[in-house]
Every structure is written in C-alpha cells, then in structure tokens.
Amino acid sequence: MKYRALIPFSGGIDSTAALYLTLTANPNDRFLVFKVNLYNGHSGSRTIMEERAVNAILDELRQMGIHNFTYRRLSFDYSQLGTPPIWDSESVNFAAATCIRAQPEIHEFIEGAIADDFLQPGFDDRISQIEKILYLVSEKNKDNLNIVFPLKDMFKYDVMKAIPNNILKLTWSCRFPVEAEGWDMQRCKKCHTCKVVNAVLEKHGDEFPDMY
Ligand SMILES: [Zn+2]
Question: Model-level pTM?
C-alpha cells in the first residue's frame, strides 16, 4: 500500500477536522492515519476517552463511505519519568517520523494546528521543534516531506463548522476528563481546550446542537 501522507489523529476536534478535510478533498489518494497513545502519568482517562473517540470517528467515516485510509496505532508509555519531560506533540511526532521511515513514499505530513494556536506565545518555537524532530527522525527534508497545515487560517469556530455534526459530536478534546455517573467521563470545562470550545458554544451553541 502506498500512502500520500501521514495524518496524526488524536480524536480531538482539530485533528478530526484535518483528517476529514484531507480525506474528502483527495478521494483518490490513500492516507496513513496514525494514533499514539501516550501514557505520561496523568494522561490515563484522557487516553481512554481519545481512544474511544478515534474508534467511533473512524467507524462513522466508514459508514459515510470514506475508506481512503489505513489506521495504525502505537502506545508509548513514559509515565515512570513523572512530569512529562517533553511536549506530547514532540513524542507524537517522533513516533510518526519513525513510521515515515518505514513508508518512504509518504511525502506529506498533515499538521492540525489551527489559527488560535498560532496566536499563543511560543507556538512558533514548538512548531519548529516538531519540524526538526520530524526531519531528523524520518531522514527526510523539506524537498521530499512537506508539512501541510490545512487549518492554519481557521479559528475554532470555523474548524467546528468544517466537520459534519455527526462526526463532531464523537470528538474528544478535554485534557483532564472528570468522573461522571455510570462509570462514564465528562469534559472538565476548565482546561485550555475546554475553554476554547466553551467560548464557541456560548456564542454559537445553537449551531452545534449535538455537542455535549
Ligand atoms: Zn477539559
């Protein structure tokens, strides 16, 4: 199987939008969808909720007749190191780059950063760190591996509007899920990603009737 691009996929709103837009815009290409389960101390319930979201979203895509992808996952446990010594995005991209080494025909990497992210202080440094890791570990360069940012001009509202509601409602973006009744988990409504989503829902809640 030959792949055009690797798409890192966490089950969150942004990576779901990057995945959906890329698959539907290029129906004749095939994509490698890649999930890294990170275990880094306090990530346990988040990892479970993301895993649930990923499986539900990929099933929904298949139901919609979208089949131009292969799904692979890998677990990466560094919880014994205590407080994560590196950003999640760095370990995800390290793992993704090893995958690109194994599939050298891959010439695009789909990065799900959105316009809100680029406004955060230090975000450009994080992106440049990710690029360095990606090129070093994949043994590729800018000529044969293009990092694509399909959402870079879209703010959270635009990103949420770009995903059909039946898929959006399956996403999981909260960093610190809290216990809910019936052995379930619900979003904390306090972490950074919850706050960004809250702000959209306060303004445009009626446009996302199935969200939470
Ligand atoms: Zn949260």
Answer: 0.93
